[in-house]
Structures are given as structure tokens and as C-alpha cells.
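Per your request, structure below.
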């Protein structure tokens, strides 16, 4: 590897450039690429920790058939033959692919081409259905093409930034940092956050609108009506460049501020304060993501937002626009290749002319002529037996799809499940008949497109491990074995990219937004070096294009945009007497999705290390739910266990639980097993944010933690959650039935036979044990009536350096550190491992700003992701001291 190797981060849709350098000690140093337009040198905590997720532990390194190791030839042959057999017997509609916004564009293109052009069904859908489908419908309806108008630079140029349904500080941290910096430089800038709960993103908000879950469309309708009444419309733009304004304004007129306030359950003053900000600002930008898209009326919400921008003429100009920020590194690339079942390829659909055009370009023998099954329908079709073979690549649907227990059951019944994965054990891979080892980030070559249409290269800097192969290679090999050799004879991803680029320009003539024909003639060497560029890249824009629609021309046949009258709707499933609360779900700062990669980094597990459920104090009290007790959540679809977090920033009547935990990390914590498979009728996107739910205290007889040097599975029949640690297996556990003899229990469930146990029997059935082997600590176990109060860092330290006999050993047995080591508490700053207790102590000693804390403890001085939390701690603890 050369010094200063550049690639793109594999996590979120910000799409940061990453530089890797081999340090003198051989380790890889990861830093932000100063030249990359998305991040200009910044990285968030997940990006900074990339180096810690590159080891091969847990990787799938060889093909497997029915659990046994197989060679590639046999595995590929089996996939091709068995798919072929199903197609022969039941037709092409009986097979399906389920892909991912984490595949590279080149991989994605090949998967789509194989299914839609050669197998002849459109049954390829992707996890982007759960993520971007509503945004796509919104853009297509308004602009005639799936085109994101904005650039990140607009964030810096806006006078008013509206963040709705987006916890940017945690989910798009580098975008958030750019906003924070812009705000510092231009203090006149205003930020409005619209989110039912108070999030870290609210740290920067001038106004936080904690609206009733699902009610956004009414707010944006009301804003449109307000602008109409206060001379805030760009009537000239509407006349020249848009259709549908009259009907849309007439329908918005039903939303005076009083009605908006009532519908959204917001104070009237807050509603008008927001509208006034809109009236006063020269330019405004709306960033939106899952709080908008993941709704049974998500597409309509997107159009309510876009209506406002069109009517105000706040589009195609600096600092303006409706900006859907994409989640995955290649969500946008998937949209470009046509990864969704209702798209064909290169922004074409299933009209007769589009299918014919793509057929000719691909020389496809069996072009699909109808949209295929979307994600939710697809797994229902597997359950009903209609789909008999599925190939899942780069996604973990047994965890991330709604009604996830039903998804699991469907996969168990499916005659053929093929999974391409980088990890050996995932909830989905466990259900596969054939497992194909894919190359991971750092090993694979290709390209991705971020939220601002910027195409960047992911480059390999590590050798391919074991027998892992690139996804495009695996797909092409299967295609060849299915008899489509000529169309899939790719030798290099650059050839695939060139074909994809050529298709985007094929008979385009300005009719399709996605046009990168300017990149169709790149040689492999030029493709290898390709610098980040924003599409379109064509004769008109040879160096790419920062902002779309500057000329007021849209992609509908008449060149005009469309405003759509929107009738606001609340979530499809309303709370009831049996399920009185609303379950909101989403992301945490330091984990990525189903944790298959971020779950490997101990550092990323210290911020929040267990599935949790946030609840308002007034909802918790009558249910007898205390802070940090365990709770059980129930819906008609499933149940989960999580640690309660009482949080006054949570809206009353609404709970929040993270989407990340899965069967590998906890006993019963897959939140999607609770989510009903209710979707938006226009986009097919599931309503992942608003499930009616019941919560109750889970009565525990005991709670425990164990640290082991050896690897060991968690006991069955109890609550457990695994916390990744360096050099130790660590479980948090709890049980509903009492245990009489803890020593026996310990020996029965964990490999402790050979250890010398030093134990302490405590009051109220408490029991602590340290297991020694050859002078080293091999086990530490703590159980009590409630959750044991432990200093985990001190316990882990004892695994490295056994404590001396006497007081230090007794301290370890008590779960504490030696007296001279202050307790750290939960990690707030993951970059420098700074714990909550140390931060609170420093605040007590007079550090009353994030800068002062940074100077004293280093916290918040690297990626800055923890700054909102530092400020919150200062607020809580500095004021408490004064008061
Ligand atoms: N750390 C981290 N970052 C990630 C990811 C990750 O797994 N971890 N995943 C990436 C992916 S794929 C995606 S899609 C993005 C998602 O990024 P975000 O959309 O920012 O993330 P979420 O936490 O899913 O949801 C955002 C917010 O929507 C709010 N919300 C819920 N209901 C409503 C509502 O009715 N109205 C409004 N206005 N808000 C509501 C929630 O309270 C939540 O705070 O993050 C990307 N970045
Ligand atoms: N309740 C609820 N559910 C949600 C959401 C929510 O907010 N709430 N959000 C939804 C959203 S927006 C999204 S995007 C989804 C995400 O959900 P998933 O896509 O299921 O989540 P990941 O964990 O990212 O799954 C990616 C899988 O691909 C593997 N992988 C990584 N790299 C490669 C590679 O190069 N090749 C191959 N073949 N495999 C690879 C990883 O190990 C992992 O198992 O979850 C959705 N589900
Ligand atoms: S913001 Fe963080 S996770 Fe997202 S691309 Fe940048 S470094 Fe990666
Ligand atoms: Mo996503």
C-alpha cells in the first residue's frame, strides 16, 4: 500500500473521503481526506474507528453449502443450477434478489442487470426500500426524475436550515459538523429541528418543534399557506416553472396556524415562530431523512416539503432546496442503477419505450416488463411459497425488516436461501443454505454516490482474505453459469462502470436526470484514479454539476415541476387501549445498523452498550418503571427486552428504541420483530417510526455481569446482552427466576471448572466471584438483586494486570478499581475514551465549556460527535453546582 491511500468511508451517505497510512508500528492510521469535497478532512467517530474493524475475526472466508465448506466452483454451480431449476419449473417470478445500498455501484449494476434483463423478472429490491423509497417517489412526482437538487455547500450558504426527521448529529455527523461551523461563522444563520423527541441535534437548534409523531405534512402545508398569506411566494417562478400551484395552495389554505398547532400538538407560538423564520429568511434549506421517509404517508410528506420550496422559489439557488440526506454509502448509487423493484436502470422505468431501450442496450433476452415485488411484499411472497429461491446480498433482513420474526420464519421455509456476506454469523446468514464470502471495505474496488450526487471511489488497500471475492465477480460468475456468458464477461469493475455510464447517456438527450455519459470512456487506469465528481457528468457539464434546476427546467415532459395537494395523514396504526404508546426507532451515535462491523470495536460499544428504551418520566412512573430497570415491549407482532432510560426529552406517549441490536448481541432485542409491516401505498416504504406498543417492567429476580477470558455462549432462557471488549467476553445478564446456588450456576453455564474461585457472598443473595488460572484473572462475575454497580474499566484492567493480593484483589472482587484510579463511567467521548464520571468531576472543578473540558480531558477534540452530550452534562452539572 502506498502512503496516503484514499478511499471513501463505508458507513453513512455523507460519503467522507478517508486516508489510510501505514504507521511505523505496522498499524493503519485512518484520517479524513482533506481533499474530499464531502468532509474536507473531517471524520466522525465511526469513521475514525474504521481501523479497529478490519481484523478478520468472525469473517466468512470460504463458500459454504449447508454448513460445510465448499469450493467456489461447486458453490457457484449450485447457485446457478438451483436458481435455474426454480425458473424452469415455476417461471422467473419465483426467484428474487434482495440487495443493499451498501453494495458498490458496480456490484449493484450487475445484480440488477442479471435479474431484470436476463432472468426476466423485476424481483430485485433492496434495503433502500426501508430507507429512501419515499424520497424517491417525492422527487419523481415533483421533478419528473429522482434528482436531489442540492449540495453540502448549500448547508453553509443557507440562512435558515430546517432539519426534519433527522438526527443529523448522530446519523450524519460530518454534515452536522459543517452546519455547526457555518453557524459559528455566520451567527445570523437559524436552525430549526423538527423531531418528536429531543435529540443531540437539538443542541444547535434555535427552535425545536417536538411535534406529534407523524404530523409533519400539516406543518409544511401550514407553512405554505402562511407564505401565501404573507407575500412569501415566488409567483413568477410558479408561473414559469411549475404546475399544480393553484390546487396545492387551495388545499394548503385549510391549514391555518391554529389548526396546524392543534393537529401537530404544538404551541401556537412555536408554529408561528417557525413560519416567521421562513418569511424572514432569504434562502432556506430543508434536510430530511427517516423521520419523514419511514411513514405510511412518507412520500406525501416529501412532497409537502418540496411544495414549499417550489412555491417559495427556494430551489436551484445557493443555500436552498429540499435535500433528502441518504443513509447508506451507496443509497444513491442503488437508485442510479435501478436497484428498486419498480425501476429498471439508469433512472428508467417500465414504460414500453424504456424497457425497449434497456433491452436493446443490454441485448437482453428476457427483459422484465413489469415492476417486481418490493421488500415487504417479497418476504411475504417467500412466506406464501410464491417465491422459492432468494439471494440476499449486503443486508440483514432478519433484523432490519419490519415483522422480523415473520421474515425469519419465511426464510426458514424457503427452499433456497443464498447469502453473500462478509461476516460468518449474522441473523440472516444463519438461515442460508449457501453462504458466499464477499470482499469487505478496504478489500474491494468500486464506486459509491453520496447524498449530494457525488460519485467517489472506494479503493482496496488490503489483500483479499481467504477465498472472499468481490460481489460483482460472484454475480457475474453465476450469470455466466446460467448461460449469459457474453453479457457478463466482466474482468474488472471499471468495465462495469463504463457500461453503466454509457447506459445513463444512451438515448438520453436531456430527458433523464442521471447522465454520467462523460465517464463512459474512462480507461481502467482513469477509473482507478477518478476524483470525486457530482453528476450529471456529460457534454453540458463535463466537470459535474453542483446544483440542479438552476435554469428552472425539470424532467417532466413539459419541463415544469409539479406541486401536489397533500392531505396530511397520521400513522396508519393508531395507539389503542391494548397498545397505548407509540414506538419510535432509529440510530445511535456509535453503531451502524445491525452491528456486524461496528459491533467489533470495543470503543464503539462503550457509549451505549445495551439495547435500551427511552421513556418520559410521567409515562414511566405509573408503570413502576425506574431508570435502568429492564422493560418488556410488546406489539401484536413480537416483543423485546431493553434497559429503561428515563428521559424528559422523550415526548409523552412515545418511546424510543435503537434499531441495532440483534440475535448475535442480545437475547431478545430485535426491535423490528415488533414493527408492523405497514407501508406507504405510494413508495412501499415501511412505517418504522410509529408502532403502537405496550411497555411493562420486566420483573427480575437477579441481575449480573460476567467477564471471561475465554469465548463462551450466553446461557439460554435469561436476558443477556453482549458487550464487545478487548481481551474479554463480557455479558450483562438478568433472570426472572431466583437461583439458589450461584457457584453451581456459574459452573454449569460457563467454562469455570479449572479455575480457582475467590468468592464473596453478599447480602440479599448477592454473589461475586473472581476465577484465577495460573496467576491470571480468567473470570469475574457479579450478581445482585439489582444491576451491579461496577467499574468495568478497572475489571478489564485486571485481566491485563492481575491485582496484587490484599486490598487491590478485594477491590476487584467488589467490582471496583484500586483507590488511586478514579471511576470512568459510561464513555461519552469514544475517540479518547473519556467517561461520564471524569467529565462530571472536571465540570465540578470548573470546566464550564466544551473547550475547557477538551483542554483538560481531550474529550470532544477529535471528531466532535460528543459535543452535544458534553454541553448537556455541563448544563446539568454546572447549574446544579450553582443552584
Ligand atoms: N450512527 C449511525 N449513523 C447512521 C446509520 C447508523 O446505523 N448509525 N445509518 C445510516 C442510514 S442507512 C440512515 S437511513 C440514516 C438515518 O438517519 P436519521 O434519519 O437521522 O436517523 P433515525 O435515527 O432513523 O431517525 C431520525 C429521527 O427521526 C425522528 N422521528 C421519528 N418520527 C418522526 C416524525 O414523525 N417526524 C419527524 N420530524 N421526526 C421523526 C426520530 O425521533 C429520529 O430522531 O443514518 C445513517 N447514518
Ligand atoms: N425499526 C427500524 N428498522 C429499520 C430502520 C429504522 O430506522 N428502524 N432503518 C432501516 C434502514 S434506513 C436501513 S438502511 C436498514 C439497514 O439494515 P441492513 O441493511 O439489514 O443492515 P446492515 O447491518 O447494514 O446490513 C448489511 C449487511 O451486509 C454485510 N456486508 C457489509 N459489507 C458487505 C459487502 O461488501 N458485501 C456483502 N455481500 N455484504 C456486506 C454486513 O456484514 C451486514 O450483515 O434498516 C432498516 N430497518
Ligand atoms: S460522517 Fe462518519 S460515518 Fe458518515 S461517511 Fe463520514 S466518517 Fe463515515
Ligand atoms: Mo438507511
Amino acid at each position: 500500500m502506498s502512503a496516503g491511500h484514499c478511499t471513501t468511508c463505508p458507513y453513512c451517505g455523507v460519503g467522507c473521503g478517508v486516508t489510510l497510512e501505514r504507521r511505523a508500528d505496522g498499524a493503519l492510521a485512518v484520517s479524513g481526506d482533506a481533499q474530499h469535497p464531502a468532509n474536507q478532512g473531517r471524520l466522525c467517530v465511526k469513521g475514525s474507528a474504521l481501523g479497529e474493524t478490519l481484523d478478520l475475526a468472525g469473517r466468512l472466508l470460504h463458500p459454504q453449502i449447508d454448513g460445510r465448506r465448499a469450493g467456489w466452483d461447486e458453490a457457484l454451480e449450485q447457485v446457478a443450477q438451483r436458481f435455474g431449476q426454480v425458473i424452469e419449473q415455476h417461471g422467473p417470478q419465483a426467484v428474487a434478489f434482495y440487495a443493499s445500498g451498501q453494495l458498490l455501484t458496480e456490484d449493484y449494476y450487475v445484480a440488477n442487470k442479471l435479474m431484470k434483463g436476463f432472468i426476466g423478472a423485476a424481483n430485485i429490491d433492496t434495503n433502500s426500500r426501508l430507507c429512501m423509497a419515499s424520497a424517491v417517489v417525492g422527487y419523481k412526482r415533483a421533478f419528473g426524475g429522482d434528482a436531489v437538487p442540492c449540495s453540502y455547500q448549500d448547508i453553509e450558504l443557507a440562512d435558515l436550515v430546517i432539519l426534519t426527521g433527522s438526527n443529523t448529529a448522530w446519523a450524519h455527523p460530518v454534515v452536522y459538523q459543517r452546519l455547526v461551523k457555518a453557524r459559528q461563522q455566520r451567527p445570523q444563520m437559524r436552525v430549526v429541528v423538527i423531531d418528536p423527541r429531543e435529540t443531540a441535534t437539538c443542541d444547535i437548534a434555535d427552535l425545536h418543534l417536538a411535534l406529534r409523531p407523524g404530523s409533519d405534512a400539516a406543518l409544511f402545508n401550514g407553512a405554505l399557506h402562511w407564505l401565501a398569506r404573507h407575500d412569501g411566494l415566488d409567483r413568477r417562478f410558479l408561473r414559469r416553472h411549475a404546475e399544480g400551484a393553484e390546487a396545492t395552495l387551495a388545499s394548503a389554505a385549510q391549514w391555518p396556524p391554529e389548526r396546524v398547532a392543534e393537529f401537530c400538538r404544538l404551541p401556537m407560538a412555536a408554529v408561528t415562530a417557525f413560519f416567521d423564520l421562513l418569511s424572514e429568511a432569504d434562502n432556506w434549506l430543508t434536510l430530511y431523512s427517516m423521520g419523514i421517509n419511514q411513514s405510511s404517508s412518507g412520500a406525501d410528506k416529501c412532497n409537502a416539503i418540496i411544495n414549499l420550496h417550489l412555491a417559495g422559489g427556494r430551489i436551484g439557488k445557493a443555500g436552498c432546496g429540499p435535500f433528502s440526506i441518504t443513509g447508506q454509502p451507496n443509497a444513491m448509487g442503488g437508485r442510479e442503477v435501478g436497484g428498486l423493484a419498480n425501476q429498471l436502470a439508469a433512472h428508467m422505468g417500465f414504460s414500453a419505450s424504456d424497457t425497449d431501450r434497456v433491452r436493446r442496450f443490454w441485448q437482453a433476452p428476457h427483459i422484465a416488463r413489469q415492476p417486481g415485488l418490493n421488500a415487504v411484499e417479497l418476504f411475504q411472497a417467500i412466506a406464501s411459497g410464491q417465491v422459492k429461491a432468494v439471494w440476499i446480498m449486503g443486508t440483514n433482513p432478519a433484523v432490519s425488516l419490519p415483522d422480523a420474526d415473520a421474515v425469519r420464519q419465511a426464510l426458514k421455509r424457503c427452499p433456497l436461501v443464498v447469502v453473500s456476506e462478509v461476516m460468518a454469523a449474522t441473523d440472516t446468514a444463519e438461515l442460508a443454505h449457501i453462504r458466499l464470502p464477499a470482499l469487505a471495505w478496504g478489500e474491494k474496488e468500486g464506486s459509491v454516490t453520496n447524498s449530494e450526487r457525488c460519485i467517489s471511489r472506494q479503493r482496496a488497500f488490503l489483500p483479499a482474505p481467504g477465498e472472499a471475492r468481490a460481489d460483482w465477480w460472484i454475480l457475474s460468475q453465476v450469470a455466466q453459469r446460467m448461460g449469459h456468458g457474453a453479457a457478463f464477461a466482466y474482468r474488472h469493475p471499471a468495465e462495469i462502470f463504463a457500461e453503466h455510464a454509457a447506459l445513463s447517456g444512451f438515448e438520453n438527450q436531456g430527458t433523464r436526470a442521471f447522465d454520467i455519459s462523460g465517464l463512459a470512456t474512462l480507461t481502467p487506469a482513469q477509473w482507478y484514479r477518478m476524483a470525486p465528481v457530482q453528476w450529471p457528468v456529460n457534454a453540458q457539464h463535463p466537470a459535474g454539476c453542483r446544483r440542479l434546476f438552476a435554469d428552472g427546467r425539470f424532467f417532466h415532459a413539459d419541463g415544469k415541476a409539479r406541486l401536489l395537494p397533500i392531505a396530511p395523514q397520521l400513522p396508519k396504526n393508531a395507539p389503542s387501549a391494548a397498545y397505548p404508546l407509540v414506538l419510535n426507532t432509529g440510530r445511535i451515535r456509535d453503531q451502524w445498523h445491525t452491528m456486524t462491523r461496528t459491533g467489533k470495536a470495543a470503543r464503539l460499544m462503550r457509549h451505549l452498550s445495551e439495547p435500551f428504551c427511552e421513556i418520559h418520566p410521567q409515562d414511566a412512573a405509573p408503570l413502576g418503571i425506574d431508570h435502568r430497570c429492564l422493560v418488556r415491549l410488546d406489539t401484536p407482532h413480537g416483543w423485546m427486552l431493553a434497559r429503561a432510560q428515563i428521559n424528559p426529552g422523550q415526548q409523552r406517549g412515545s418511546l424510543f428504541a435503537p434499531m441495532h441490536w440483534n440475535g448475535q448481541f442480545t437475547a431478545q432485542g430485535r426491535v423490528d420483530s415488533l414493527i408492523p409491516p405497514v407501508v406507504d401505498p405510494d413508495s412501499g416504504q415501511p412505517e418504522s417510526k410509529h408502532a403502537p406498543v405496550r411497555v411493562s417492567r420486566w420483573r427480575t429476580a437477579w441481575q449480573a455481569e460476567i467477564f471471561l477470558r475465554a469465548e463462551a455462549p450466553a446461557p439460554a432462557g435469561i436476558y443477556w446482552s453482549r458487550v464487545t471488549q478487548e481481551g474479554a467476553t463480557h455479558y450483562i445478564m438478568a433472570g426472572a427466576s431466583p437461583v439458589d446456588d450461584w457457584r453451581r450456576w456459574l459452573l454449569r453455564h460457563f467454562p469455570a471448572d479449572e479455575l480457582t474461585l475467590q468468592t464473596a457472598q453478599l447480602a440479599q443473595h448477592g454473589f461475586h466471584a473472581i476465577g484465577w488460572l495460573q496467576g491470571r484473572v480468567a473470570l469475574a462475575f457479579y450478581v445482585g438483586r439489582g444491576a451491579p454497580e461496577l467499574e468495568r474499566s478497572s475489571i478489564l484492567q485486571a485481566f491485563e494486570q492481575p491485582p496484587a493480593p490484599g486490598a487491590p484483589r478485594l477491590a476487584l472482587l467488589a467490582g471496583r478499581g484500586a483507590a488511586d484510579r478514579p471511576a470512568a463511567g459510561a464513555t461519552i467521548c469514544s475517540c479518547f475514551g473519556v467517561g461520564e464520571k471524569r467529565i462530571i468531576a472536571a465540570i465540578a472543578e470548573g470546566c464550564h465549556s466544551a473547550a475547557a473540558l477538551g483542554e483538560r480531558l481531550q474529550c470532544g477534540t477529535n471528531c466532535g460527535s460528543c459535543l452535544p452530550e458534553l454541553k448537556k452534562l455541563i448544563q446539568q452539572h454546572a447549574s446544579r453546582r450553582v443552584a
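The chain has a mean pLDDT of 95.

Regards,
D.
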